[in-house]
Amino acid sequence: MAWCGPRSDLRPLIGPDATLYPTGKRYFRLGGEFGMDSVRSLWEGHVLPVNRFIRDAADQAVADYRPDVAVVDQYAMAGALAAHRHGVPWATFCVGTLELTPPELPEFDEWVRGQLTRVWALTDLPVDETIDLRFSPYMVIGLTSTALTGATPLPARCVLTGPALGRRPDAPAFAWDPARRHVLVTVGTMAEHLARDFYQRILAATAPLADRVQVVLTASADLLPDPPAHVLVAPPGCRCWS
What is the pTM of this model? Predict the structure, then answer.
């Protein structure tokens, strides 16, 4: 197996001997937009710049390693294009549900398809209208379940696996209160710059429920150095459900 991505993220996870094609790493911050503005921000502020940035590294990885199959993050479409160019079947790996269960916004489908054309334009490949780069024609792996997707029709050859639960560090002194309901709150990985204000509002909103609810926030300690008694703070990636 070979890996393609940021060295600083992957090397500690895959070990010193695994084959790695580094892409480098750049940060792209999203704003606090809503509706179609948030979709535009995602694509124009993150997806398109990232694919432009990793294009050459992804193509070199597939060309050099010549894998039997590639597994490509849904928004790392440069990997799908590299696999398509070199005749390698690939699976799309969906860690979110925005594309699997698109919002009911009038502009969404047409606007996103326009952005897919821009992704094709990052290479010298002709646009293949039969391929939606968000969804592999071979397999789509979604880290969710029908409990969350509902009755929304899913792409062909889509398999929902549930969350990817590998080894995680134990959360220190994680004191569950079995007498209260538990609420998990997280901003995810692409809105951390908005987290401080958001978490303060969560603390205020849940304070009246402190006798009934125990809130679990996935956040670094510096964001919430002194949480109230009804709030547990766990670093991202901790094994807080065991």
Answer: 0.74
